[in-house]
C-alpha cells in the first residue's frame, strides 16, 4: 500500500486515497443527517436519531423535544385496546378512558369516579379525603362561582380571581373543570390528577415506576372498571 493510508474511524480499515476512504464510508457506513456522526447500519442510525435528535423511528419525522416525540409515537401504536362498553378500538387505555369520560359510551365520568373508589386498590391511587367526593359524585360542588367586582367593574372568578368583561365567558370559565380538585394520585411518584384518564396517561408514559401491567394497582383498577362497565 503506497503513500500515507487514510483510515476509517469506524472499522479501522485503511485506504490509499481520500476518495477510497469516502467511498468506503458512504457505502459501508451511514452518516447522521443532524450531527454528521457516522454509524454502521440503518438500525443504528434510526436508534441514534431517535435518542439524540427526537426523530421518529417509524416515519423519520423530527420534533423539538423528546416529549413531543413521545406524544407523536401514539399515532404508530396498534389499536388493540377495546372499549369496556362498545366495540371501538384504541391505541391506549387512557384514550379509551377519555372516550368513556366524555359520555360517548355506556358510562360517564361520574360513574367511573364511583367505580374507581369502589375498587379494593383505591388507597393506592385516590388521594386521602377524596373517596367520599367520588362516591357521592359531587365533583361539581367543588367548582367556584363568579362574582361582580364593583371596583374594577368586571366579573371575577372566585377560584383564581381572573377578570372577565363578558359574564357568559366568566361563567363558562368558573363552571368548567379548570378548578376541579385532583383526587387521583400516581401510585409510583405521587403526582396528582383530576381525572382517571390523565392518571392512566401518565402511567402509560413511563415517567415513573408505575405501570399498567400486572400485577400493579392500575392494572387491577382497569380490570375492575372493565368488569363494571361491561356489566352495565
Task: Please describe what this structure looks like.
The chain has 232 residues and is an alpha+beta fold. The mean pLDDT is 86. The protein is elongated. The chain has 9 helices and 11 strands. Strand 1 and strand 2 (14-15) form a beta hairpin. It has helices spanning 18-28, 42-53, 66-73, 93-101, 109-118, 131-136, 167-174, 196-204, 217-231; strands at residues 6-7, 14-15, 30-31, 38-39, 81-82, 89-90, 146-149, 154-157, 163-164, 184-185, 192-193. The protein has a 3-stranded antiparallel sheet. Helices cover 38% and strands 11% of the residues. Helix 4 (93-101) packs antiparallel against helix 8 (196-204).
Task: Kindly list the characteristics that best describe this protein.
two-stranded antiparallel sheet, single chain, alpha+beta, 9 helices, 11 strands, three-stranded antiparallel sheet, 232 residues
Layout: helices, strands, pairs:
Layout: E1 6-7, E2 14-15, H1 18-28, E3 30-31, E4 38-39, H2 42-53, H3 66-73, E5 81-82, E6 89-90, H4 93-101, H5 109-118, H6 131-136, E7 146-149, E8 154-157, E9 163-164, H7 167-174, E10 184-185, E11 192-193, H8 196-204, H9 217-231
Antiparallel strand pairs: 1-2, 3-4, 5-6, 7-8, 8-9, 10-11
Helix pairs in contact: 4-8
Task: State the total count of DSSP E strands.
Answer: 11
Major sheet description: 3 strands, antiparallel
**Order of strands, widest sheet:** 7-8-9
Oligomeric state, counting identical vs distinct chains: single chain
Percentage of β-strand residues: 5-15%
Shape: elongated
In angstroms, what is the radius of gyration?
27 Å
In round numbers, the mean pLDDT is 86
N-end to C-end Cα span? 81 Å
Amino acid at each position: 500500500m503506497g503513500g500515507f493510508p487514510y483510515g476509517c474511524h469506524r472499522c479501522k480499515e485503511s485506504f490509499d486515497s481520500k476518495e477510497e476512504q469516502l467511498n468506503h464510508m458512504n457505502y459501508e457506513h451511514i452518516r447522521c443527517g443532524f450531527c454528521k456522526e457516522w454509524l454502521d447500519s440503518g438500525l443504528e442510525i434510526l436508534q441514534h436519531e431517535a435518542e439524540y435528535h427526537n426523530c421518529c423511528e417509524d416515519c423519520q419525522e423530527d420534533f423539538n423535544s423528546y416529549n413531543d416525540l413521545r406524544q407523536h409515537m401514539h399515532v404508530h401504536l396498534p389499536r388493540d385496546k377495546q372499549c369496556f362498553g362498545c366495540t371501538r378500538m384504541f391505541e391506549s387505555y387512557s384514550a379509551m378512558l377519555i372516550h368513556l369520560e366524555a359520555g360517548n359510551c355506556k358510562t360517564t365520568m361520574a360513574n367511573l369516579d364511583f367505580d374507581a373508589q369502589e375498587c379494593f386498590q383505591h388507597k393506592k391511587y385516590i388521594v386521602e379525603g377524596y373517596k367520599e367526593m367520588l362516591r357521592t359524585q359531587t365533583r361539581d360542588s367543588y367548582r367556584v362561582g363568579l362574582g361582580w367586582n364593583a371596583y374594577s367593574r368586571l366579573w371575577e372568578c372566585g377560584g383564581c380571581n381572573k377578570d372577565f368583561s363578558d359574564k357568559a365567558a366568566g361563567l363558562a370559565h368558573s363552571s368548567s373543570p379548570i378548578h376541579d380538585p385532583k383526587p387521583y394520585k400516581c401510585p409510583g411518584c405521587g403526582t396528582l390528577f383530576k381525572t382517571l384518564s390523565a392518571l392512566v396517561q401518565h402511567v402509560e408514559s413511563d415517567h415513573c415506576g408505575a405501570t399498567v401491567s400486572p400485577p400493579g394497582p392500575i392494572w387491577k383498577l382497569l380490570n375492575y372498571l372493565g368488569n363494571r362497565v361491561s356489566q352495565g
